[in-house]
Amino acid sequence: MAPTFDLIGLVVTDMAASLSFYRRLGLDIPPSADTEPHVEVTLPGGLRLAWDTTATVRSFDPSWSPASGGPRMGLAFRCDGPEEVDRLYAGLVEAGYEGHLPPWDAFWGQRYATVHDPDGNGVDLFAALPTG
Predict the structure, then answer these.
(1) What is the pTM of this model?
(2) Which residues share a beta bridge with 76?
(3) Which of 11, 84, 86, 92 has a C-alpha 20 to 30 A away from that of 78?
C-alpha cells in the first residue's frame, strides 16, 4: 500500500496572528484555537492543514530551526473569479499583511497574486480568466 498524502503543516511564531490570516481566506477555525500549541482543520476533500508553534516543534525536535533564505513552499487558494483575487489581495494588504505580487493576468490564463502570511510563507490567490 502506498502512503497517502494527508497533512500540510506550518510552523508559526504567533498562532493567533497566523490563524487570523487564514480565517480571512475562509478557513473555519474556532477563536479558541488561538491559544493552542497545535491546531488543524480538515479541508474539503479530506486533506488537513495544521499549525504548530515553534515551541511545540522544539519540544520533540530541539535542534529545529526555521529555514533561512526564504520559504521553500507555498499555498494556493482558488478564488471564484478574478474579482475575488483582487478583493482578497486588497483586503489582506489593507489589514497589514505583506503583499508580494499584486494581482496580474498570468500568461497561463489565471488572475494571480501572492501575499505573505505572518511567518513569511507565500500564499497565492488565483482564478481562471474569462475565455473568449
Answers:
(1) 0.90
(2) 124
(3) 11
Residues β-bridged to residue 65: none
In terms of CATH, what superfamily is 7-59? 2,3-Dihydroxybiphenyl 1,2-Dioxygenase, domain 1 (3.10.180.10)
* 20 contacts 44 by C-beta, under 8 angstroms: no
Over residues 76-127, the pLDDT tens digits come to: 999 999 999 999 999 999 999 999 999 999 999 999 999 999 999 999 999 9
Q: Residues, the chain, total?
A: 132
Q: Is 70 left (phi over 0), alpha (psi -120 to 50) or beta?
A: left
Residues 89, 83 contacting (CB under 8 angstroms)? no
**Domain 74-128, CATH among 3.40.50.720, 3.40.50.2000, 1.10.10.10, 3.10.180.10:** 3.10.180.10
Give the cell for residue 95: 489589514
